[in-house]
Amino acid sequence: MNRDEAAREAARLAEQNPGRRWLPREGDDGDWTVAEIKLPPGMKPNPPLKETVEQKPKPPEPDDPRTSYDRNVGGPWVG
After folding, report:
1. Considering the domain boundaries, does residue 46 fall inside one?
2. Domain containing residue 9
3. In total, how many domains does the chain have?
């Protein structure tokens, strides 16, 4: 069985058994199989992932309101 066949078989098994998870898996010999993922009792499978929502970019940082003397030298309070 190749990867595509294993993926189709996993999808078919997931459709027939809605409470179980099935994934294609490559064996040590390079042959593909379908593996069942066991969930702990009472745990429900995750719903399908949803589309991501992009956030607005942060506004640029404002300029430093201090004078150049205070920014560069530190002012009269610095010893």
Report:
1. no
2. 1-39
3. 1
Going by pLDDT thresholds of 50, 70 and 90, the confidence category of residue 9 is very high
In the structure encoding, which two tokens stand for residue 7, read together? 């993926």
**Does pLDDT of 48 surpass 80?**
no
User: Is residue 47 in a domain?
Assistant: no
Residue 42 structure tokens: 């009472």
Beta-bridge mates of residue 25: 33
How many helices (H) and strands (E) are present in the chain, helices listed first?
A: 2, 2
Whether 69 and 78 have beta carbons less than 8 Å apart is answered as no
- Got the DSSP string for 14-41? HHH-TTSEEEEEE-TTS-EEEEEEPPPT
Report residue 74's pLDDT band, with 50, 70 and 90 as the boundaries. Answer: low
18, part of any domain = yes
Measured from the Cβ of residue 10, the count of other Cβ atoms closer than 10 Å reads: 20
Residue 51 β-bridge partners:
none
